[in-house]
């Protein structure tokens, strides 16, 4: 349909894998799996549910009749009851036991947790892939000197690979938050209207141990072993805030990387991939715009903004529940994951094929290196017998004049020529050239890259830290 809005997150940005996790099929078949788990567990514990009923429910997990459910929802104005009734029409033998003892959040919230689990696992996998690609880049360019910038002004030298380690370290920190959010996941369980499990207690004639066993059986069948210790009708919306906060951290890191790359591309030092037939501008045919990096920034900004939705929803839940969370969560949770998924797809794409221009990088280094080498020159001249205070003042004067000419006249940096021609300095042009080797001014950058990759990144990439999506047993 071309006359109806569709989200660009589906049509342009997010992967099919992430779209599938938040699809109607995944949502409503998970509801049905929860109803099967409930009915089967109730049967196993002696409640009036038969194997024939459970088998019929299981047989129709996948063939959701969306048209029928839509018709029921138009009448009932209740999405869960609409699907209960539609499921019951497909499973007439089991109609009377579907949803026995449960309230709506039994399916809605437990299903949401299972989708969050799978979405976090997929996000984590994609972060690891970005790290793999950045690792290769960092090691390849670990010793290539480049102009380090503070305040976006030339500072001291670093290396291209060392800068990539800063990007990787951000993502490494994000993995810690992602893992914490993943480990925080709990099923809501079967809690009833206000979280007291009162309806299930009635089913089991007041036997609380059977209520606990029912909950444990359901959790196991759904691939989860933990439930929240207490709840209202819903699981605590604080969890949504925690999860979106972790995604926002990834967004911040990706934004930082993409913004750095946009600046580097403007310096013509490092570029994102640019295909042979790609058009940078509809007007300026020569343009090579960093459109992928700009898209990362655009989508990452959306993820960061969505955290406010989750925070406000968690803050405004009244007592045991209020329904003003529902419409907001239908938007904020999927959109945050779809957006961060698109960000990580772009990040991985860029990281695998960044184009580095060593000649331009070294040219910019050489333009600024004479200023950075002045301390080394001063110490060498003092070693050769010069007067430190006199030489310091001469360097100050020469540096100021060289910088003035560079800015006011567009002249080359002639600081070394000035020093070489100044009789106060007991050093010749050849000795000065030796002091202008860029590798002398990158400190421990190369070593830091190798150590960071070995001690921090490799254990994450080579370890058994992949978080698998849970297996639903029903």
Automatic annotation (TrEMBL):
One of its GO terms (cellular component) is cytosol. GO terms for molecular function: (S)-2-(5-amino-1-(5-phospho-D-ribosyl)imidazole-4-carboxamido) succinate lyase (fumarate-forming) activity; N6-(1,2-dicarboxyethyl)AMP AMP-lyase (fumarate-forming) activity. PROSITE patterns: FUMARATE_LYASES (PS00163). Keywords: Amino-acid biosynthesis, Lyase, Purine biosynthesis. InterPro entries: AdenyloSucc_lyase_C, Fumarate_lyase_CS, Fumarate_lyase_fam, Fumarate_lyase_N, L-Aspartase-like, Pur_lyase. Belongs to the lyase 1 family. Adenylosuccinate lyase subfamily. This is Adenylosuccinate lyase.
């Amino acid at each position: 349909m071309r006359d109806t809005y569709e989200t660009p997150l589906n049509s342009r940005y997010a992967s099919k894998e992430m779209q599938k996790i938040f699809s109607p099929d995944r949502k409503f078949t998970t509801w049905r799996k929860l109803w099967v788990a409930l009915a089967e567990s109730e049967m196993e514990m002696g409640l009036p549910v038969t194997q024939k009923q459970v088998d019929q429910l299981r047989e129709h997990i996948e063939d959701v009749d969306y048209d029928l459910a839509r018709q029921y929802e138009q009448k009932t104005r209740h999405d869960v009851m609409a699907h209960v009734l539609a499921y019951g029409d497909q499973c007439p033998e089991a109609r009377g036991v579907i949803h026995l003892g449960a309230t709506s959040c039994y399916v809605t919230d437990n299903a949401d947790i299972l989708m969050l689990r799978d979405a976090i696992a997929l996000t984590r996998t994609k972060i690891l892939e970005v790290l793999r690609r950045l690792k290769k880049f960092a090691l390849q360019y670990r010793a290539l000197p480049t102009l380090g910038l503070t305040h976006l002004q030339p500072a001291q030298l670093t290396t291209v690979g060392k800068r990539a380690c800063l990007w990787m370290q951000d993502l490494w920190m994000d993995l810690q938050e992602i893992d914490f959010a993943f480990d925080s996941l709990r099923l809501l369980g079967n809690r009833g209207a206000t979280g007291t499990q009162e309806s299930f207690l009635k089913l089991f004639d007041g036997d609380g141990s059977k209520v606990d066993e029912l909950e444990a059986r359901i959790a196991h069948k759904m691939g989860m072993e933990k439930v929240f210790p207490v709840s209202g009708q819903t699981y605590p919306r604080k969890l949504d805030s925690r999860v979106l906060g972790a995604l926002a951290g990834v967004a911040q890191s990706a934004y930082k990387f993409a913004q750095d790359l946009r600046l580097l591309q403007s310096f013509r030092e490092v570029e994102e991939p640019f295909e042979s037939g790609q058009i940078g501008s509809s007007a300026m045919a020569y343009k090579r715009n960093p459109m992928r990096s700009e898209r990362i920034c655009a989508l990452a900004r959306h993820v960061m903004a969505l955290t406010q939705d989750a925070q406000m929803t968690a803050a405004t839940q009244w007592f045991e529940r209020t329904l003003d969370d529902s419409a907001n969560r239908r938007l904020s949770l999927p959109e945050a994951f779809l957006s961060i998924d698109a960000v990580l797809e772009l990040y991985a794409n860029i990281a695998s094929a960044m184009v580095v221009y060593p000649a331009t990088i070294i040219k910019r280094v050489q333009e600024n290196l004479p200023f950075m080498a002045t301390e080394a020159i001063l110490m060498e001249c003092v070693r050769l017998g010069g007067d430190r205070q006199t030489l310091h003042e001469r360097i100050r004067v020469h540096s100021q004049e060289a910088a003035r000419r560079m800015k006011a006249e567009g002249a080359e940096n002639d600081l070394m020529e000035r020093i070489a021609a100044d009789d106060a300095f007991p050093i010749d042009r050849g000795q000065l050239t030796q002091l202008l080797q860029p590798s002398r001014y990158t400190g421990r950058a190369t070593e830091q890259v190798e150590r960071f990759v070995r001690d921090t990144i490799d254990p994450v990439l080579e370890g058994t830290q992949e978080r698998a999506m849970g297996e639903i047993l029903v």
